[in-house]
Structure formats: structure tokens, C-alpha cells
């Protein structure tokens, strides 16, 4: 099995308003990782405020277990009829997984009404979302400054976006040979992923080989770029090909948490007009 090592970025060292020793080196490490392979671990533990991420992620896993353990009939009450196929707000399911996505816009303006099974952890979910939002924008600022490209003009808070925090249940199955192929790239700007059981594979750049990425250590996330990040950077920053599978045979529960930073509404069309 192929293997690949990806760097760990210390979020505490990326604060340009408190830039201390190692700031420039950490930004260079971030830039290199975003260029190739496009994946890196982000360590929240040393940054003021975000040291709480470890506890918040545990709460989110517990909320996920409680929510997805409900009957399909109960969860379907959270299905949003009429939303575009590309939008994932609320409850969704398919043959291999089910999810519940909380819109950043709705979390920010207070219009999101969580189902009872999640409302117990509403404060923790809001805090996790806020910490991921802060981190994603910090990464964007660092890369924008390094490349001298104004990424922020496509991520203005005053305009709506499809950014959000998603809870995912994707159980492992009895036979690994029967896992459905699902290789893809993400469409947005950044994805932050938290998970405990091995399953994420990345395509090794320049080859047909795939490698498992170790689950992030407690207090860390795996971060990777999406198609819009690649588009904004004229192909300098990558949107890596990846998929979800499993190491071995065996059915069981498996949860992950994902935060998606996506561009403001209409940004893709506006950017493509200038390319």
C-alpha cells in the first residue's frame, strides 16, 4: 500500500497580528502543502480560543450518534424539499451515507432551528463552526498574501454563501471489496475534516496510486483545498482527488465532521469572467 506524509500546520503560528518567531516559516509550509499534495493537518491546540476544538469535536460526534440513530421517518422531517440538488442543507441520505448540514448563514443570523437530537449540543456546534470559520479565513489570508491574490473579494460575509458545518454518518460495510467507488474533488474553497476511523484516501500526485491518510490527532483537522481555491489561484493551489473507503472488512458505525468554506454567491461566474 502506498504511503504519503503530509505536514502539520500550527494554527497558533499563523496569526499575523501576533506574528512571532516561525510565522514566515509556517506560512511557507502552508503554501507548499497547498500546492502539493493539497492536504495538511491543522493543529488547533496551541492557538488561543481554538484549544476548545478537541472538546467541541467530541460533542459533535456524540450529537451525530444520537441524531443518526433515529428512525428514517424522524430524520426525514429535517429534509428540505425544493432546495437545489447542489445544496446540502438539512438532512440528506443516499445508499452509502447520510448527513445533516448546518448553513453558516443560518447559524450566523440565528435562523437555524436544530432538531431536538442536535439542539442539546447547539452551543458546542456553534462554537466549532466559529472556530473553523476563523481558521479557514486565516488560511485564506495567509495564502492570499503569499501569492498576492485578493482571495477575500470572493468571500465577503455580507453576501450569502453555501458554507456550512456537516455531520456525516458513513458506516463501514462487511466486505471492503464492495465499497462503492466515490473518487472526487470538492467544489468549494477549503474543507476541514475530522474523523476517528481510517477511511480517507488521497490520490498520490502524478500517479494512479492511492494512500490512506491517518485520522487527525485529537485537536487537529485534515484540511484540503477545493476547486474554487484552484480556480482563484490559476492552478497554483490544488484541489486534490480523494475518496472514502475502509482499511478492512467489517461493518460498523463511522462518523465524520466537515466544515466547508465556500465562496459567496455568484463568485464563480464573476471570477470566470476575468480569466
Q: What would you say this structure looks like, in words?
A:
InterPro entries: IPNS-like_FE2OG_OXY, IPNS-like_sf, Iron_ascorbate_oxido_reductase, Oxoglu/Fe-dep_dioxygenase_dom. GO terms for molecular function: metal ion binding; oxidoreductase activity. Pfam families: 2OG-FeII_Oxy. This protein has one domain: Jelly Rolls. The N and C termini lie far apart (40 Å). It is an alpha+beta fold and 275 residues long. It has eight helices and eleven strands.
Helix content percent band:
25-40%
* Overall pLDDT confidence: 93
Range of strand content: 15-25%
CATH fold-level label: Jelly Rolls
Q: How far is it from the N-terminal to the C-terminal residue, by CA?
A: 40 Å
User: Which ranges are low-confidence, i.e. pLDDT below 50, for 5 or more consecutive residues?
Assistant: none
Helices and strands, in N-to-C order? Answer: EHEHHEEHHHEEEEEHEEH
Radius of gyration: 18 Å
Overall number of strands: 11
How would you name the CATH homologous superfamily?
Answer: B-lactam Antibiotic, Isopenicillin N Synthase, Chain
The chain-level structural class is alpha+beta
List the helices and strands and how they pair.
Blueprint lengths: L7 E3 L12 H13 L3 E5 L9 H16 L3 H4 L14 E4 L4 E6 H6 L6 H4 L2 H26 L16 E6 L20 E6 L4 E4 L6 E3 L7 E6 L1 H6 L9 E3 L10 E7 L5 H7 L2
Parallel strand pairs: 1-2
Antiparallel strand pairs: 2-9, 3-4, 4-5, 5-11, 6-9, 6-11, 7-8, 7-10
Amino acid at each position: 500500500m502506498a504511503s504519503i506524509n503530509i505536514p502539520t500546520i500550527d494554527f497558533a503560528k499563523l496569526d499575523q497580528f501576533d506574528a512571532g518567531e516561525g510565522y514566515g516559516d509556517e506560512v511557507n509550509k502552508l503554501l507548499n502543502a497547498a500546492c502539493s499534495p493539497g492536504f495538511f493537518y491543522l493543529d488547533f491546540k496551541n492557538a488561543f480560543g481554538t484549544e476548545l476544538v478537541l472538546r467541541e469535536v467530541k460533542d459533535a460526534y456524540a450529537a451525530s450518534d444520537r441524531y443518526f440513530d433515529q428512525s428514517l421517518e424522524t430524520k426525514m422531517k429535517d429534509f428540505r424539499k425544493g432546495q437545489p440538488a447542489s445544496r446540502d442543507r438539512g438532512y440528506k441520505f443516499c445508499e452509502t451515507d447520510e448527513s445533516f448540514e448546518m448553513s453558516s448563514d443560518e447559524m450566523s443570523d440565528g435562523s437555524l432551528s436544530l432538531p431536538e437530537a442536535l439542539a442539546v449540543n447547539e452551543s458546542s456546534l456553534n462554537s466549532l463552526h466559529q472556530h473553523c470559520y476563523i481558521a479557514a479565513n486565516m488560511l485564506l489570508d495567509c495564502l492570499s498574501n503569499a501569492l498576492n491574490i485578493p482571495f477575500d473579494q470572493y468571500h465577503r460575509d455580507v453576501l450569502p454563501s453555501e458554507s456550512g458545518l456537516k455531520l456525516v454518518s458513513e458506516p463501514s460495510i462487511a466486505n471492503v471489496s464492495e465499497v462503492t467507488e466515490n473518487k472526487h474533488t470538492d467544489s468549494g474553497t477549503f474543507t476541514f475534516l475530522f474523523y476517528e476511523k481510517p477511511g480517507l484516501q488521497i490520490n498520490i500526485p502524478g500517479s494512479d496510486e492511492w494512500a490512506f491518510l491517518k485520522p487527525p490527532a485529537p485537536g487537529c483537522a485534515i484540511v484540503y483545498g477545493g476547486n474554487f481555491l484552484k480556480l482563484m489561484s490559476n492552478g497554483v493551489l490544488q484541489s486534490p482527488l480523494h475518496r472514502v473507503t475502509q482499511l478492512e472488512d467489517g461493518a460498523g458505525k463511522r462518523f465524520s465532521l466537515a466544515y466547508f468554506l465556500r465562496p459567496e454567491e455568484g463568485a464563480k461566474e464573476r471570477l470566470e469572467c476575468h480569466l
